[in-house]
Specification:
This protein is an all-alpha fold. The protein has helices spanning about 1-15, 20-35, 40-65, 70-75, 85-105, 110-130, 135-155, 160-180, 185-190, 195-200, 200-225, 230-250, 255-280. It has one domain (about 20-280): UbiA prenyltransferase (Tetracycline Repressor, domain 2, Orthogonal Bundle), CATH 1.10.357.
């Protein structure tokens, strides 16, 4: 019985790519710590983490349901629909969406007002590939909501610092998603899926990804300035630059190499960013 339950949980976590939570969550926690100028209250910390888990789960389930038949035709994703029955995915989507709305609404009046907007935006990304080539930027926007939402949860206001950070997250995510999307170039072109990789070609898309990650680095510097972070934060930035450089050096590997570099580099970027902010603000 336990093995069956563990198997179901494991398949569900693979369906929603739970390991990729490490990309957005550190930016939300870092924004929360900066907004609180130290440790936030345990209540706010737990509510923000719950919001992140619920929102990301709902977004991934919505994406899987919208692309259910499309994923079956893509060799890279052909087995996704076997992980969880479609009806179960619908039920879990409903529960996670409700969980996010209720949790966000319990924090303050602004999170109450903006929770439905945030949920709509993260769902909207999954539809964009059908009508725009800028889908990579909409994915970035979906993840960039996290630090802004965490800041609002702590302060009840929207300030310049999280907006600058969000701009960096948009460019960071759009850049690495362009690299990741090169794997699906032939499939997307055959299926008529809108993507900048299809529109620009692989070479120019990879150059654009490099430019976006350069903007990301500048935005992280800007965030440190606006948020009045200290030397410890700035000393961490060369490590982030090195991780981004490594990601672009490995962008032409085979599928396994791309996936490995994708996860390792971006997990390193988000982890170093969070550690640097904590070291600066929690001293």
């Amino acid at each position: 019985m336990t093995q069956v339950a563990n198997g179901r949980v494991g398949r569900f976590l693979r369906l929603i790519r739970f390991s990729h939570t490490i990309f957005a969550l550190p930016f939300a926690l870092a924004a929360l710590i900066v907004a609180a100028n130290g440790w936030p209250s345990l209540k706010i910390l737990l509510l923000v983490i719950l919001c992140m888990v619920f929102a990301r789960t709902a977004a991934m389930l919505f994406n899987r349901l919208v692309d259910w038949s499309l994923d079956q035709r893509n060799p890279r994703t052909a087995s996704r629909h076997l992980l969880v029955p479609k009806l179960s995915a619908v039920i879990l989507l409903t529960l996670s969406s409700a969980g996010f709305l209720l949790t966000a609404s319990s924090i303050n009046w602004l999170t109450f007002l903006l929770a439905p907007v945030a949920l709509a935006l993260i769902f909207f990304y999954s539809l964009t590939k059908r009508f725009t080539s800028a889908t990579h930027f909409f994915l970035g926007l979906a993840l960039a909501i996290a630090p802004i939402g965490a800041w609002i949860a702590q302060t009840g206001t929207i300030d310049p610092a999280p907006v600058v950070l969000a701009a960096g997250v948009i460019c960071w995510v759009a850049g690495f998603d362009l690299i990741y999307a090169t794997q699906d170039y032939d499939f997307d072109r055959r299926e008529g899926i809108r993507s900048l990789v299809v529109k620009l070609g692989i070479t120019r898309s990879l150059r654009l990804a490099q430019g976006l990650h350069l903007v990301t680095f500048v935005a992280l510097i800007g965030f440190g300035f606006v948020a009045k972070l200290g030397a410890i934060y700035y000393w961490s930035l060369p490590l982030i630059a090195a991780a981004l450089y490594y990601e672009h050096k490995t962008e032409k590997r085979d599928l396994a190499g791309i996936n490995r570099a994708f996860f390792q580099s971006n997990a390193f970027v988000s982890a170093v960013f969070l550690i640097a902010v904590c070291a600066d603000r929690l001293r």
